[in-house]
Amino acid sequence: MKIDNRDLEQNILVVAEIGQNHNGDMTMARKLITAAKEAGADIAKFQLFDVEAIFPADDQRNKMRKKAQLSREQVEEVADYCQKTGIEFMASVFDRERVKWCQDIGMKRYKIASRSIYDSQLIEAITDTGKDIIASLGMYREKGFPRIKTSGRVDFLYCVAKYPTLPEDLDFLTVDFNQFSGFSDHTIGIEASLIAMARGARIIEKHFTLDKKLPGPDHIHSVEPDELKQMVEFARKCAKILYHAKEQ
């Protein structure tokens, strides 16, 4: 879909994907939100799920996921802290109950994760809100884009559902960022995100951590605060060069 410059407030939207990297520690969650804001990110994003509902019972990573599973009260806490910090709160939601949580706290827009792109009941619950949607297509196997009928805006992100993603797994030569709104980056490092922005990506989502050596599945392909700051600075310069110049 063609991107309208007026619809993206910062021209290139940088999403710091905190996800599960707080490891269930609310002090860590607040530190991550603060660090994301200080680095200049536009959005601090979390993941809201019920481990037992979406993951196989014998998955060895469930113990770690269970620690990172946020209760309704914790969601309210991090959303409130985001508001006080001055950064937008957003979440990937994985069931209808958690959509209701996000409606109750007034979340501005929803993220549909790759694994949920075929979950029609969840998507219906999200579209019924009328809020804007960002959807990753790492697990989408059809031609074109999903038909998501909603009164809100829908932005699709190119991504590869491998964690971490190897550089050779990417297909930037054929990906059209006039069609894809942006890139959800699971590679190690920031180079792939920088290239995507230079090629026209208007939304960049990147996992964020305070320390890549922390336990958990996503820290290794996350960026630390100094790297996130570099990404944001590049995004601002890139937007000025690619988009503002065209508007003069």
Quick structural gist:
With 248 residues, the protein is α/β, with parallel strands linked by helices. The protein has helices at residues 26-39, 51-54, 62-68, 72-85, 96-104, 120-127, 191-198, 225-247; strands at residues 13-19, 43-48, 88-93, 109-112, 132-136, 154-158, 182-185, 203-207. The model is unreliable at 1-7 (pLDDT under 50).
Question: Can you offer a commentary on this structure?
Answer:
It is built from eight helices and eight strands. With 248 residues, it is of the alpha/beta class. It has one domain (9-247): Aldolase class I (TIM Barrel, Alpha-Beta Barrel). Strands 1-2-3-4-5-6-7-8 form an eight-stranded parallel barrel, surrounded by six helices. The radius of gyration is 17 Å and the shape is globular. The chain starts with 12 loop residues before the first strand and ends with a helix. Residues 1-7 have low confidence and may be disordered.
